[in-house]
Q: What sequence folds into this?
């Protein structure tokens, strides 16, 4: 995470996400998946091809791509279908777009009710016998049962969570890095799924994105760094009012 | 020649000239700002490389001078609510924290009997100028104890004239021992955890001996805490000096 300043002098905290060897793996049609839209399987970050079963390596072999560490599914409209094997780059996103980032949260192991659900616990003194971090009562007398989903101690973290509506401030095309506003779930160097935002406020925000994606061998030559209009670039002189 | 008691003086050969080449002087005086050195951790070095590129870019446009904890600086920032839209503050640097673009330094001064500390970000675009009025080092890396010292040690004139260094060889170390206000202090500065050399403790002997009870003499031998930055510094120094020379 890094600070980023806007032209008005305000500071924002920014997370760097690297797009490492992303390829489209497979196209699943609407009828096959049984849903409303077609799906594209996308894989990221190369991993070792050994010690894996035949069925898993089959998908990568057919696409002509080394085995990937993370495989995720994207629902796409019919005009955005890509051929399996096309590489995906950070320039697929442009500064000013809004993005949802999904990842597995940091695993905390088996945790008690105070850390996991934020219960208040009991006082440290004034006669409490062996009860300082316990949940207390778990149900009422009339119910005479414990409801399903009662908040109790258990394994915390290591589940998929999404941060919605994060603004993309800057894109580095040389190293394929996306600078995304705010924090993102997961530990440092973890694998993350980045998608266009589904929030209703940002539905009409993506003006002319590269559609269906940015092709590196295409005609357009992008500069090394793409900035949003409000970002203060370090080549400019200091901000004055 | 005849000396004062009438005998001829022995021939004294002239002292041999000491030739110190300017190149060697400049090499010896290299200073790498501490925020360039990456902290220990499992982050990808690519992240530090990207940050360093931004930091070098900012240094090409705006001059960030060399300074240490204990030097007196004057910082002018852009302020939308001031009359002239600029705000000038003079103070002694008591702490340099943070790594990368978020590096900060705290300046302390006493204005009209009120102690004021301001934390500035080195790479913030609102800073218009940083001047070093007096470049010097102190015995400690962290001068937070000036909060509990007598206010005369933290007062500096707002219209102070810059003091230029005559020798461009070594940064002078001010071995000043500061006198403190009576206890209680904000932190127990006599404890060996802080390892402060710049205070003249006027506490009785038993209190100083009792403070040594909290000493941890095994810490300096702890191999897991070692972080040798010499090689990393060399590489980063080469990278930064080449980029700034262009």
A:
């Amino acid at each position: 995470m890094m600070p980023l300043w806007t032209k008005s002098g305000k500071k924002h905290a920014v997370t760097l996400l690297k797009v490492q060897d992303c390829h489209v793996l497979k196209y699943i049609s609407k009828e096959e998946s049984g849903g409303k839209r077609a799906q594209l399987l996308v894989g990221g970050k190369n991993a070792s091809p050994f010690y894996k079963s035949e069925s898993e390596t089959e998908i990568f072999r057919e696409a002509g791509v080394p085995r990937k560490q993370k495989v995720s599914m994207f629902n796409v409209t019919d005009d955005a279908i890509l051929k399996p094997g096309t590489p995906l780059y950070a320039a697929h996103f442009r500064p000013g777009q809004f993005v949802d980032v999904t990842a597995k949260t940091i695993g905390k192991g088996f945790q008690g009710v105070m850390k996991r659900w934020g219960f208040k616990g009991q006082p440290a003194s004034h006669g409490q016998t062996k009860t300082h971090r316990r949940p207390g009562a778990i149900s009422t007398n009339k119910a005479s049962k414990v409801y399903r989903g009662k908040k109790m101690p258990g394994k915390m973290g290591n589940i998929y969570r999404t941060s919605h509506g994060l603004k993309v401030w800057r894109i580095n095309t040389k190293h394929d890095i996306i600078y995304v506003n705010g924090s993102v779930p997961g530990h440092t160097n973890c694998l993350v799924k980045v998608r266009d935002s589904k929030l209703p406020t940002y539905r009409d925000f993506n003006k002319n994105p590269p559609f269906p994606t940015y092709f590196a061998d295409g005609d357009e030559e992008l500069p090394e760094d793409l900035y949003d209009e409000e970002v203060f670039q370090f080549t400019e002189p200091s901000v004055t009012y | 020649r005849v000396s004062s008691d009438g005998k001829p003086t022995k021939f004294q050969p002239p002292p041999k000239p000491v030739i110190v080449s300017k190149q060697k002087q400049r090499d010896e005086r290299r200073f790498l700002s501490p925020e360039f050195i990456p902290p220990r951790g499992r982050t990808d070095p690519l992240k530090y490389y990207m940050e360093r590129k931004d930091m070098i870019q900012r240094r090409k446009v705006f001059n960030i001078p060399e300074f240490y904890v204990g030097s007196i600086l004057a910082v002018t920032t852009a302020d939308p609510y001031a009359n002239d839209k600029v705000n000038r503050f003079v103070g002694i640097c008591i702490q340099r924290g943070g790594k990368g673009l978020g590096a900060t330094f705290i300046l302390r001064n006493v204005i009209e009997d009120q102690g004021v500390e301001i934390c500035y970000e080195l790479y913030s675009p609102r800073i218009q100028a940083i001047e070093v009025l007096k470049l010097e080092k102190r015995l400690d890396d962290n001068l937070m104890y000036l909060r509990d010292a007598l206010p005369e040690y933290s007062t500096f004139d707002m219209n102070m004239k810059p003091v230029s260094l005559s020798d461009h060889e070594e940064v002078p170390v001010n071995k000043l021992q500061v006198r403190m206000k009576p206890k209680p202090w904000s932190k127990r500065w006599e404890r060996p955890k802080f390892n402060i050399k710049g205070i003249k403790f006027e506490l009785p002997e038993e209190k100083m001996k009792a403070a040594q009870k909290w000493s941890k003499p095994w810490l300096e031998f702890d191999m897991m805490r070692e972080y040798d930055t010499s090689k990393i510094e060399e590489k980063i120094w080469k990278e930064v000096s080449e980029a700034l020379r262009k």
User: Anything to note?
Assistant: Chain A has three domains: 1-19+91-106+158-198+226-240, 20-88, 108-156.
